[in-house]
What we know:
By secondary structure, this protein is mainly α. The protein has helices at 2-45, 53-56, 60-66, 77-96, 101-109, 113-117, 119-190.
Amino acid sequence: MRSVLDKLISWTGLALAAVLVVAGILLTxxxxxxxxQVHDQLTMQGITMPEGDALxxxxxxDAKALEPYAGSPMDTGPEAKAYADHYIxxxxxxxxxxxxxxEVSGEYVSMTDEQKASPEGQELAGLRQTLFMGNTLRGLLLxxxxxxxxxTIAGIAAIFSFAGAAILLALFALGIWHARRTRDTEVVAGxxxxxxxTA
Length: 199
């Protein structure tokens, strides 16, 4: 009976190992696909990470965040996030004195037609357009970073899936070996005791 139970548990473990192998393959594919897509889409933008004067003109914290990528093509999620948060956003805040697109747009919309046509109105319209484009680019770059992070998580999950499958396969082999050993013990224990010969 113990032998049958060992076999049942072992084969269940083998089935779970098969599920983990399939999951690992799919997660590896997701990791590769997402990584390739993020790389290709960012490369097509032709953005080079800031260096030299472009870097030194930034606040110290932002310059430090960009230093590891200085002068390299922007083709990874972390680079996209650094560029969005420590370069584009810095220039947007500088241009608008810290005002958001929503605030600048609200000011512009509340103007009369005469005010919009004035030099101040035209300047505000230009700032509004700049902030809109900056927010759009930041959003796209941060989406790229988010997808790259998902790809990284998929890669880590794939490693754990394959490791789990390997452990279950080892336990399956151990369980089958134990089942055979238990069966042999049960057979020996169940054998009839020989009756001693009488004279």
